[in-house]
Amino acid sequence: MFLPNHHRDHCEPLDPVDAETLGAAAAEEVERYLRFRANHAPTPLHALPTLAAELGVEAIHIKDEGFRLGLGSFKALGGAYAVIQLALEEAGRRLGRSVDYAELHSSVVRTVATGMTVACATDGNHGRSVAQGAQLVGARAAIFVHSGVSDERVAAIARFGAEIIRVDGTYDDSVAEAARVAVEKGWIVVSDTSWPGYERIPGLVMQGYTAMVREALRQLPEVPTHVFVQAGVGGVAAAVAGHLALVLGSRRPTFVVVDPARAACLFESARAGHPVRIEHGEPTVMAMLECYEPSLIAWRVLSRVADAFMTVGEDDAVAAMNRLARPTDSDPAIVAGESGGAGLAGLMRANADPDIREALQLNEASRVFIINTEGATDPERYTALVGMAPDVVATRRQGADV
C-alpha cells in the first residue's frame, strides 16, 4: 500500500522543540559524545551501482549500521546516548556544576550512576543499547522483553549485565509494563517511544540517531533525491527526515516511510490523519519493526516532513535481505537483518509499481539513500531466511565503500 502525505501539517516547519532536538547543533553534540566512546567509528556507506541500474535510477547508497559500536544496529546510538546524558545530568545536579563527556569514565560519574536504575521495553536492539549505556557508567538496567523476542536477542542484552523481565504479549504491552514498574520502583524509563507527558528522554534517543545522518551526508557524493527509511514506532524515520529537512531546507529529498504490512501503525496514522493504535495480528518477520502505536514525537515530525507512507510484505523483506547478501557485479555483499533491509524493500516495491514510481518522481536521475538499520542481530534466524550464515556473507563482501 502507498499513501502520499496529505496531512494539513505537511511541509510546515518542525515544532521548535523538535527542531532543537534534531538540528545541526544537536548532531554535533552527539558526535562530540561519540569521541569518548572507545569503539566508535563511522559506519560504512556503500554504493550499489548494479542494483541502481537494475531499478532504473542514477544511484543507490546504503549506510550499513551493522557495524555500529559493536551492537550491530543503529540503536546503539540512541539508548546509550540517552542513558549517559541522564547520568551526566544527575552528576551535575549532585556536584552543583556542569559535568562534561570528558568525565564519562570518571569515578565521580560512576559513583552517582551506581544509584540509578534505567528501564526500557525492547524488541532487542534498543534494550542492548540501554544496557550497554548503563554498563558504561555503572548504572543498573532492567530490560522488559515481550514474548516475541528471541532467546538469542535476550542473551545479547543480558551480556551487558541487565536484569531481564519477561512480559506476555506484544512490544506495546512491554512498554506499558516497563512504565508501570518503573513508577512503582522509582526507576528511570529510557524509552524509544513517547506518549503524553513523556517526551524528553525519547527525544534524546532520537537525537542520538542524528549522528548517523550527519556521517552519511559527509560520505555521500551528492545530496540524495529520495530516502526510504523503515519504521517501527517511527523514531529513526523521524530523526533522519527531521535532520535532513533542517540542514538541507529546500534541497531536502523526497522522504518515504516504510512500514511492515503486518504492523503498519504509521501508515494507518497517516491514513487517519492522527496517531492511531492498530490491532495486533500475525507477527511480522521484521521483528524490530513490530510496533502497533507510533511515538507521538515521531508522528509530530513525520506528519510535517515525510512525503509518503508505504507498506512492504514479508516476502519483500526477505527478498531484500537476500538481494543484499547475494549481489551481482561490483555491488558489495551486505549482511542485513530481517528489519535492516526494509527500506530497500520499500524502494524495490515502489519501483515495481508504475503509479508509485510516477507519484514519487522516481526516475533515471534519482539518487536514493537507504539505511541498513541492523546486521544479523539474530544469526540463527538470519541463516534460516538467507540460506547462508552471516559470517559467510561477510567474507563475500566486495566492491568499494564510498
What does this structure look like?
The chain is an alpha/beta fold and 402 residues long. The chain has 2 domains: 2-74 and 207-395, Rossmann fold; 79-191, Rossmann fold (3-Layer(aba) Sandwich), CATH 3.40.50.1100. It has helices spanning 16-22, 24-34, 49-55, 79-95, 107-113, 125-137, 151-158, 171-185, 200-219, 235-248, 265-272, 296-305, 314-325, 342-351, 354-359, 379-386, 390-395, and strands at 2-4, 45-47, 59-64, 117-122, 140-146, 163-167, 188-189, 226-230, 254-260, 308-312, 367-372. The strands form 2 sheets. It has a 7-stranded mixed β-sheet, sandwiched between helices. It has a 4-stranded parallel β-sheet with strand order 6-5-4-7, with helices on both faces. Strand 4, helix 6 (125-137) and strand 5 (140-146) form a beta-alpha-beta unit.
Give the arrangement of secondary structure elements:
Elements: E1 2-4, H1 16-22, H2 24-34, E2 45-47, H3 49-55, E3 59-64, H4 79-95, H5 107-113, E4 117-122, H6 125-137, E5 140-146, H7 151-158, E6 163-167, H8 171-185, E7 188-189, H9 200-219, E8 226-230, H10 235-248, E9 254-260, H11 265-272, H12 296-305, E10 308-312, H13 314-325, H14 342-351, H15 354-359, E11 367-372, H16 379-386, H17 390-395
Parallel strand pairs: 3-11, 4-5, 4-7, 5-6, 8-9, 8-11, 9-10
Antiparallel strand pairs: 1-10, 2-3
Cofactor: pyridoxal 5'-phosphate
Pfam families: PALP
Domain Tryptophan synthase beta chain-like PALP: 40-373
Record keyword descriptors for this entry:
402 residues, alpha/beta, Rossmann fold, seven-stranded mixed beta sheet, four-stranded parallel beta sheet, 17 helices, 11 strands, 45% helix, globular, diaminopropionate ammonia-lyase activity, Diaminopropionate ammonia-lyase, TrpB-like_PALP, TrpB-like_PALP_sf, pyridoxal phosphate
